[in-house]
Amino acid sequence: MLSNENLLAASKGNILRLERAKLKGFVTIRHCSILPLAHIFERFILLGVFLRGTQVVFCPVPEKLVEYFS
């Protein structure tokens, strides 16, 4: 069973992996979310985004993705 603690540990591990790989320059400062918040992958991604202090933009209509992301 997945718990909040599992998700938090996985998100922290992912951030450490990105920092070790020196990919900081490739990570944007804005995350545009198109998955529902109830989706487990979206929760995993959002935890990492929040831990890095990145801005989150929610896009309810995928067709308007470019508009929301600009």
* Radius of gyration, whole Å: 13 Å
- The SSE order reads HEHEH
Shape descriptor reads flat
Strand numbers in spatial order across the main sheet: 1-2
Distance between the termini: 38 Å
Specify the oligomeric state: single chain
Share of residues in helices = 40-55%
Continuous helix count: 3
Helix and strand composition category: mainly alpha
Number of domains: 1
Annotation, overall tally of beta strands: 2
> Spans of 5+ residues with little confidence (pLDDT < 50)?
none
Taking all residues together, what is the mean pLDDT?
76
Sheet-strand content, in percent, reads 5-15%
Biggest sheet features:
2 strands, parallel
Describe this structure in words.
By secondary structure, the chain is mostly helical. The protein has one domain. It has helices at 4-20, 40-52, 65-69; strands at 30-33, 55-58. A two-stranded parallel sheet has the order 1-2. It starts with a helix and ends with a helix.
Short summary:
This protein has helices spanning 4-20, 40-52, 65-69, and strands at residues 30-33, 55-58.
Q: What would the keywords be for this entry?
A:
3 helices
Blueprint (SSEs and pairs):
Layout: H1 4-20, E1 30-33, H2 40-52, E2 55-58, H3 65-69
Parallel strand pairs: 1-2
Helix pairs in contact: 1-2
